[in-house]
Each structure stands twice: as structure tokens, then as C-alpha cells.
Design brief:
Blueprint (H helix, E strand, L loop, with lengths): L1 H23 L1 H8 L1 H9 L6 H13 L1 E5 H4 L5 H12 L12 E3 L12 H6 L2 H11 L4 E10 L24 E6 L10 E3 L27 H5 L6 E3 L5 E5 L5 E2 L8 E9 L15 H8 L3 H7 L5 H12 L3
Antiparallel strand pairs: 1-7, 2-3, 3-9, 4-7, 4-9, 5-6, 5-8
Helix pairs in contact: 1-12, 4-8
Length: about 325
């Protein structure tokens, strides 16, 4: 009986992995599963200004783009608002996961609060227009976290997200990072290998294995990719980094100074991963109260597919 059960699990695992490989094929992922998001995008194409066009072009060319919050929101003084918000929560920051180098200012899986200034920026039309233009479809907002990266010193070993990796959530995705304080080479800056996303120069190096990402063995990325192709994203407070994190990246290895950073995540409807925040029970009421437009409404609306999500987390439980 035990052999039969083990054989059945083996067959189910093979079928589940094959299912996600098929979902991951570009023709299936882009043209079939994401057809609704693409249709909405075609019907309501954004009108980008010069900066937004440059950001999208940089993302398409390399997988990463950088601007400053004052460029995107001239005259709106958004950075002081964010910094004041952070200062009120800073004393309560604490370690809440196995990532001992990170202190969380929110719960690990927070409740989506549409009045939160960081959420407001994440769902602002200027941001969503960049995200959707890069994705070429209306995208889903699925992740938000606000953290303090603590200095660990030079003798510490990098682990978890401090190591090179590819995120698992989607074939093509975007994260937005906002530095709340000045970040130099000793503050654990975000690091990225341009042209390492799908379809570009380094896209085949330690590529994703759907439905998971990839953590290459330590030191192997440096053997494959010359140092001149690795970018260390230092920047002053208010720096915004847009990045396709299906590409190779790492960060948060702070040597001497802390880094305070907000992260927002966007992906397509095709992703079977759950959102990393809880939707409020009265979501529709909150959406109407916040006056969200069509793009933002689409972004925060739950869209999980029970079969795909169940299969993914069954595989995840088997240590995919």
C-alpha cells in the first residue's frame, strides 16, 4: 500500500510540474491566460510622459530602471510624507521571520490598507502606467513590505534574499523599491544583473524552473557573469527602482549602515501564487471609498484560481 501511495504521489508531482511548465510557455502565459489583462490594456492604453517612456524602455532593454520620487511626482513632496510615516513606526520594528537581518514595520502578511501612503503610491496611475506598459497588460498588485535592513558586519554569511536568486511568482513581473534613507555600498544596496530576465542576454543563466524561482549555488553566478555586468543600486533617499525580479538579483547585505526600504510587487493574472497581504473583508467598500480607478481596481481585486494555487502549494509543501 505504501508503494502505491508513493507511486501515486510521484505521478501527481510529475503531472503538476508539467502543468506549470505548460502554463509558463510564452504563448500560453501571454496570449491565453492573460488575455483579459491584455484586452483591458489595449482598450485603455496609457499616455506616458517622457520619464515614464524612459523607464519602460530601460525595463524592456535591461530589466531595471531608476528614477527619483520627486521626478515622478514633481512638487508633491511625497518623500517627507513617507519618511514621517516611517518615523512613527520605526521604534516598533522587529524581526518577524527567519531573516534575522530584517526588521518589519508591518506584519509579515499585512492587511491591505488603501489609505496607507505607500499603498497609495503603489496604486497611483503614474506607477501603474509604467508597470502595465512594461507588462503589456493590466497587472495585479500582490506584495508590499516595509523593512529596516540591519548591519551584519563583514564576517556574516549571506543567506536568503542576500544571495543571488530569481523570484518565483511569475514569468514576467515587476517590483518597485523605494529607498527611505540614503543607501550606499555599506547599506545593503539592491543588486541586479541587467539583461538577466527572460529573453535577454543572461536570461538562460540559472533560469527559473516553473513554478519556482532559483537560488544558484554560492559563487556560481560570479563564474558565469563578469563583474562589469553586475549593478549595485546605491542612491539617495527617494530613489525608486523598478525591476523585473524574475532576473537575477540580491540585496540587503548591510555592512555598516541600515537601509530602510519599501517594496511593492506586481505580476500577471497567470500567477498562481497567493497575494502576500490580506484583503479587507469590505474590499469593495474600501475601493469605492478610496476612489480607485479601473487600473487600480483591477490591480487589487483577488484573482486566485483554486486548482492552480492548490497544486502550487502542494508542490511547495514538497519543497519545490
Amino acid at each position: 500500500m505504501k508503494r502505491i501511495k508513493n507511486f501515486a504521489k510521484f505521478i501527481i508531482t510529475i503531472l503538476a510540474e508539467s502543468y506549470f511548465k505548460i502554463r509558463h510557455l510564452w504563448a500560453v502565459w501571454f496570449y491565453f491566460i492573460n488575455r483579459k489583462g491584455r484586452k483591458l490594456y489595449r482598450a485603455n492604453p496609457p499616455k506616458l510622459d517622457g520619464l515614464q517612456k524612459r523607464l519602460v524602455e530601460d525595463l524592456e532593454r535591461t530589466g531595471i530602471a531608476v528614477a527619483h520620487i520627486d521626478e515622478l511626482f514633481p512638487g508633491e513632496k511625497k518623500l517627507p510624507i513617507l519618511q514621517e510615516y516611517v518615523s512613527e513606526l520605526r521604534k516598533g520594528a522587529e524581526t518577524k521571520t527567519g531573516k534575522t537581518f530584517l526588521d518589519y514595520l508591518w506584519d509579515v502578511i499585512p492587511v491591505l490598507d488603501l489609505s496607507n501612503p505607500f499603498v497609495k503610491i503603489s496604486l497611483d496611475a503614474k506607477i501603474l502606467d509604467v508597470v502595465n506598459s512594461y507588462m503589456r497588460m493590466y497587472s495585479r498588485f500582490y506584495y508590499l513590505t516595509l523593512n529596516v535592513t540591519k548591519p551584519v558586519g563583514r564576517s556574516a554569511e549571506a543567506f536568503a534574499s542576500q544571495r543571488w536568486h530569481r523570484d518565483p511568482e511569475d514569468k514576467k513581473m515587476l517590483k518597485m523599491f523605494i529607498y527611505i534613507n540614503d543607501v550606499d555600498e555599506n547599506s545593503g544596496p539592491f543588486m541586479y544583473i541587467p539583461e538577466s530576465k527572460y529573453g535577454l542576454k543572461w536570461g538562460g543563466v540559472f533560469k527559473q524552473k516553473p513554478p519556482k524561482g532559483y537560488y544558484p549555488p554560492d559563487g556560481e553566478v560570479e563564474k558565469m557573469v563578469p563583474s562589469e555586468f553586475i549593478e549595485e543600486m546605491t542612491g539617495r533617499a527617494g530613489t525608486i527602482i523598478f525591476c523585473d525580479t524574475s532576473g537575477l538579483h540580491k540585496g540587503g547585505f548591510a555592512l555598516q549602515r541600515e537601509r530602510i526600504m519599501f517594496t511593492a510587487g506586481y505580476r500577471s493574472t497567470a500567477s498562481a501564487w497567493r497575494t502576500d497581504f490580506k484583503h479587507p473583508k469590505n474590499l469593495e467598500e474600501e475601493i469605492n471609498k478610496a476612489g480607485l480607478g479601473e487600473k487600480a481596481r483591477f490591480a487589487v481585486t483577488p484573482n486566485q484560481t483554486p486548482l492552480s494555487t492548490s497544486l502550487l502549494y502542494w508542490l511547495k509543501g514538497k519543497k519545490i
